[in-house]
Amino acid sequence: MRHDWDSDEVLLDALRDALSTPPGDIPPGEVPPEFVEAAKAAFTWRNIDEELLAITSYDSVLDDTLFARARSTATARQLIFDAEGVSLQVEVSAAGITGQLMPAAGSVTLVTPSGDHETSPVDELGMFVMGAAPHGPVKFRFVNGCTDWFIL
Fold first, then answer.
1. What is the domain partition of the chain in residue ranges?
2. N or C terminus of the chain with fewer C-beta within 10 Å?
3. What are the CA-CA distances from residue 90 to residues 6, 21, 72, 105 (Å)?
4. From 32-36, 59-63, 80-84, 98-102, the region with the lowest mean pLDDT
5. Residue 135 carries which DSSP code?
6. Is residue 66 classed exposed, middle or buried when 0-12, 13-18 and 19+ CB atoms within 10 A define those classes?
């Protein structure tokens, strides 16, 4: 929306109108979509501490003793995420992803930057199975938290 604010009187009239309109009287559809998206994005940060609940405590890619063997043979990648009262152990191979969430509850979702990639239910032992993992940044989301982003 373009305004003709070349004169001080027109600008002051526009400011007076803006200030005299109570916030609740803005008709629906007047909020630009980019403002709505920005508000939604800001709202997702309300529980960032819970989301970063589980941090990587072990990654086989970073294990020096396994690194020498991994150069000569294709091996599965082992990841362990630990936090207070929660443990997620994951094995990523060419065949897919297998893992265990302790304590066993709900489901585990593999998330990519473009959204949820795959969700798998957790059985009574906390075990879950997923298909082939996408390449690039991912994280696992589960009841009461999620891992930090890491690269597959």
1. 8-47, 49-151
2. N
3. 63, 55, 22, 16
4. 59-63
5. S
6. middle
